[in-house]
Amino acid sequence: MFLTKTNICNLHGIVEPIHAAKKKAFVHLEFMNGFKADREGLKLLKNAYKVDGVVSANLHALFEANSLGLETIYRLFLVDSISLERSENVLKGAHFSGIEVLPAINAIEEVQDLKEKLPNEFLIAGGFVRKQEVINRAFREGYTAVDTSDPTLW
């Protein structure tokens, strides 16, 4: 589960039931309040809050999280062909647990290019997923996962 509305005060109460349900808890670093995404902050997330991983567009934070043994999801914002090319160069040699490609509609349209440029990656379509048809299409096009903040689509 990607946690987007968390802070250092409510995180324990959110992570524990997720683990009780045998699910993994990933914290969205940019959306967490009262937290700094440095090495010590990431250690705190892992050791005190017991999160399984983090989601971020911040490569430095993801590399630090990887070095601490946390799972990592890189947020790739696909807004134009230049962003795709730039991401390919940035991601060479990097390893993440997955790559969330946003917005989902662009992710779906560019899936073949993404698979060529990022082979063997766990791809997640996300962002503006508001209809079941978008989810169905993402899976048909080869995405491994889709994320949405709309609970009616979970």
Summarize this entry quickly.
By secondary structure, this protein is of the alpha/beta class. 40% of the residues lie in helices and 17% in strands.
Description:
- β1 (2-3), α1 and β2 (26-28) form a beta-alpha-beta unit.
- The protein is built from 7 helices and 7 strands.
- The longest helix has 11 residues, at 81-91.
- The chain has helices at 11-20, 39-47, 59-67, 81-91, 104-109, 111-117, 132-140; strands at 2-3, 26-28, 53-56, 71-77, 98-102, 123-125, 145-146.
- It is α/β, with parallel strands linked by helices and 154 residues long.
- Strands 1-2-3-4-5-6-7 form a 7-stranded parallel β-sheet.
- The chain folds into 2 domains: 1-73, Alpha-Beta Barrel (TIM Barrel); 78-154, Aldolase class I (TIM Barrel, Alpha-Beta Barrel), CATH 3.20.20.
- Pfam families: G3P_antiterm.
List descriptors.
154 residues; TIM Barrel; 40% helix; alpha/beta; 7-stranded parallel β-sheet; globular
